[in-house]
Design a protein that fits this description.
Elements lengths: L2 H15 L3 H7 L15 H8 L1 H25 L3 H16 L12 H11 L1 H18 L2 H18 L4 H19 L8
């Protein structure tokens, strides 16, 4: 790996990841999402604070930032190492964005968008597992985590390079850790 290219990928990915869809989707209404709802700068809190439109916009912006950065990295480099590094720095930027005082989201959309780019077949498995899980359990969050856990497994079983499957597993572990951290509920 070229060190200079690695640094460029890391910086581009971190700052790209720090473009917070939830922050911008509610900002027009004069709301600081960090001071409302759960205080989390993620799509779910955008839904809670500003409604469905803000949620959809937050999700679309977060997907766009991940896909754009990974597309650029893929175009300017060769090999999965740079893409994997980019995905982790995208996650880092999303979780701890500099411009919002290192107060970001929990990484679900970044994980799913990175998975879509790195292993599209695994996302098909995620959708299938999500449907089965939700209709069986009737619990959206539990079904979601089971379905997200299926992504690295599906990636591995469908023949993706091991570095991709392991990276998706690592990103999923980061999402779990972020969800285990107590979120600070904003007092009403």
């Amino acid at each position: 790996m070229n060190v200079i290219i690695g640094i460029i990928v890391a910086v581009l990915s971190y700052f790209g990841g720090g473009i917070m869809g939830a922050h911008y989707s509610v900002k027009g209404s004069g709301v600081d999402i960090r001071q409302e709802g759960s205080g989390n700068v993620g799509a779910t809190n955008a839904l809670r604070v500003s409604g469905r439109r803000a949620f959809v916009l937050a999700v679309l912006l977060d997907i766009a930032k991940v896909m754009t950065v990974l597309f650029i990295v893929n175009a300017m480099t060769a090999g999965n190492g740079y893409l994997v590094g980019s995905a982790f720095f995208l996650m880092l930027g999303h979780l701890f964005p500099l411009q919002l005082g290192f107060h970001g989201g929990k990484g679900v959309v970044v994980y799913l968008a990175a998975s879509l780019f790195l292993s599209p077949v695994a996302i098909a498995g995620f959708i299938l597992m999500m449907g089965i899980g939700y209709f069986s359990l009737k619990k959206y969050k539990v079904a979601g985590f089971i379905a997200m856990a299926s992504i690295p497994v599906t990636s591995c079983l469908t023949g993706d390079p091991l570095v991709i499957s392991l990276s998706l597993a690592g990103l999923f572990i980061v999402v779990i850790i972020m969800h285990l951290k107590p979120s600070h509920q904003v007092k009403a």
